[in-house]
Design a protein that fits this description.
Elements (H helix, E strand, L loop, with lengths): L9 E8 L22 E4 L1 H4 L8 E8 L12 E8 L14 E4 H7 L7 E7 L8 H8 L2
Parallel strand pairs: 1-5, 2-4
Antiparallel strand pairs: 1-6, 2-5, 3-4, 3-6
Length: 141
């Protein structure tokens, strides 16, 4: 069961970053910190919470961009925070972003040629019902 309401989603502009990704502020050089899907993110100041954000997961959906047809609106990506954007080894494509997505995560929701997109995002409180259809109906984006 998911423990949030669709209106709990936040809206922000996100960027992306490329490898190398280690060491990270959350888990150092541990290779097991990265999900096998490579859908992960570095947290910006808005959600970093003095490191308490490490390991949190969010659903992210692209909602708009400067150029038409940049977003893949049919895609909802679940990402895990593994780093702090301010101290990440690689530079973000967007300064002061709330979320900086890994290259793979960004490509899942948007055209990779874009430097940033606007997203809705919500923290994942439970992954028991993680089918795409359940996410669609319960997240409400």
């Amino acid at each position: 069961m998911l423990l949030f309401h669709p209106c709990d989603a936040d809206v922000s502009t996100v960027g992306h970053y490329d490898p190398p990704y280690t060491p990270t502020a959350c888990f150092g050089d541990d290779p097991l910190q990265f999900p096998s899907s490579f859908l992960f993110t570095a947290a910006g100041e808005g959600i970093w919470d003095n490191g308490a954000a490490c390991g949190r997961q969010y659903w992210v959906r692209c909602i708009s961009a400067d150029r038409p047809k940049t977003c893949n609106r049919a895609q909802l990506a679940q990402v895990r925070i593994v780093d702090w954007a301010v101290s990440a080894v690689s530079r973000s494509s967007l300064d002061r972003a709330t979320i900086v997505l890994s290259k793979t995560a960004f490509e899942a929701i948007a055209n990779p040629s874009a430097s940033s997109v606007n997203v809705k995002f919500v923290q994942v409180w439970s992954d028991q019902d993680d089918t795409w259809e359940a996410k669609q109906s319960k997240v409400g984006f």
